[in-house]
Structure formats: structure tokens, C-alpha cells
Amino acid sequence: MPSLSRRRFFSAAAGAAAVAAMPRLVFAQAAAPAAAGPFAVPPLGYAFNVFEPHIDARTMEIHHDRHHAAYVGNLNNLAKANPQLGTRAITDVLGNLNALNDDIKFAVRNNLGGHANHTMFWEIMGPNGGKPEGEVLAAIDKDLGGLEKFQNDFNAAGGRQFGSGWVFVTVTKDGKLAIETRPNQDSPIMDGRRVLMGNDVWEHAYYLNYQNRRADYLKAWWNTVNWSKIAERYAAAKAGTLGV
């Protein structure tokens, strides 16, 4: 009869073998098929590595080519049975989620919200982003207490967001700014507001470099902001033409 130590060894080995034989779990968000359809992942317009060391190239690649692409793939699959999703403005759909059938409402909320949020995210980032100027800076001073206070408050709000989500700056048609947070892939668009800018605080946005140090990521992210694009979005918001 095997000794107690040998029985324990064989038991542990059998357990390890059983675990190894289990099918590997793959989250759908990171591996969804890129189904053809009316929705598309927008190109970045800059290389994956332009934000190093603040955001590494591998994180940018996975975030854009897998996570965002998964939302788009899911949307295109939804649009096969619900073609109206691809013919209406994204802001119109997100602003009227209760008009959707209950069987698709949750999926549209998550996937179209994710597509809108990420489309905005890539747009307001870019190399050599400069500093806020003109009307944007004046609005930050007036509504958010100046650039330093705004950035500190924005970072604090992003840090307080429990679990996955986003921290946004909303903008009204008269140019007034406010900081808001949303869980998961929700957006202020769902409440009839427009987004000037925002930062993704899902772990997939920062975990390869920062692990659980979300506060460090939030501070570093300001080095990736393209203020000229934000100025364009501010002008569009005042003109009533700002999309996602």
C-alpha cells in the first residue's frame, strides 16, 4: 500500500491533471468574431506604440483590435435580425433604449454603448496633444475650477468608479461642462446628454502595465489626450452636430 505522502502526491497530481484537462475558458468579449455588417471599428490614425511608456503598444492593440472589435462583431450579428440598428444614428438608438424589444435591449446597451464609448476614446487621444486653449480652456476654468482641479477631480471620479466603467466630461449645447461616471459600457448619451471626452477605467485599458494601480493609469493617461480633437468636439456640441 502506498505511503501517506505518496498517496498525497498522486492525489495532487491527479487533481492537477484534471485541471489541465478542463477546457480553457475564453471570454466572449476578447474573442468575438468580426462579423460583417453596418458597424466597423474606426482606425486609430496613430500607431499602437505612440503613447509609450504611458500606455504600452500591446495594451493598445488588444484594446482596439479585440475588445472594441468584439462589440462591433456582436452588433453586426444583432443587426442581421434587427437591421434598423444599422440604419439609425447611434445617438438616437442609445437615447431611446426603452423603445427596443426586451430581447435585444440589454445586448444593444452593452455593445452599442461600448462601440460609442470606444469610438470617442480613440478620437480624443493622439500624440503631441498639446494643452487646452480657447473656449475649451475657458469652459474648464468656468465650470470645473481650472485645469489642475479638473484633472484631479476627473481622476478621483475615475478612481471611485466601482468595478468596470467610464469617467466622462459631458457638454451641453451652450458649452457647459460636467464630470460624470457610468458603470460598464453605459454612456451619458443614454440620458440625453453628449460626451466631450472620457477615459476607460475597465481593467483591459491598463492592466498589462498598471495591474491594480488604476490611480497611476489615470494620471498617466493625460499624456495621451489630444486637446485639438476635444476642441473640435466642443465646437460640434455647441453647433448641435456632435455624435458619439
From TrEMBL:
EC number: 1.15.1.1
Catalytic activity: 2 superoxide + 2 H(+) = H2O2 + O2
Superkingdom of this protein's organism: Bacteria
Gene Ontology molecular function, alphabetical: metal ion binding; superoxide dismutase activity
Listed GO CC annotations: cytoplasm
Chain sites annotated for binding Mn(2+): 63, 118, 200, 204
PROSITE patterns per the UniProt record, alphabetical: SOD_MN (PS00088), TAT (PS51318)
Keywords attached to this entry: Metal-binding, Oxidoreductase, Signal
A Pfam family that the UniProt record links to this protein: Sod_Fe_C
Residue ranges constituting the Manganese/iron superoxide dismutase N-terminal domain according to the UniProt record: 39-125
Keyword Transport: no
InterPro entries xrefs: Mn/Fe_SOD (IPR001189), Mn/Fe_SOD_BS (IPR019833), Mn/Fe_SOD_C (IPR019832), Mn/Fe_SOD_N (IPR019831), Mn/Fe_SOD_N_sf (IPR036324), SOD_C_sf (IPR036314), TAT_signal (IPR006311)
Signal peptide: 1-28
Residue ranges constituting the Manganese/iron superoxide dismutase C-terminal domain according to the UniProt record: 132-233
Keyword hit for Metal-binding: yes
Family: Belongs to the iron/manganese superoxide dismutase family.
Job of this protein: Destroys radicals which are normally produced within the cells and which are toxic to biological systems.
Protein name: Superoxide dismutase
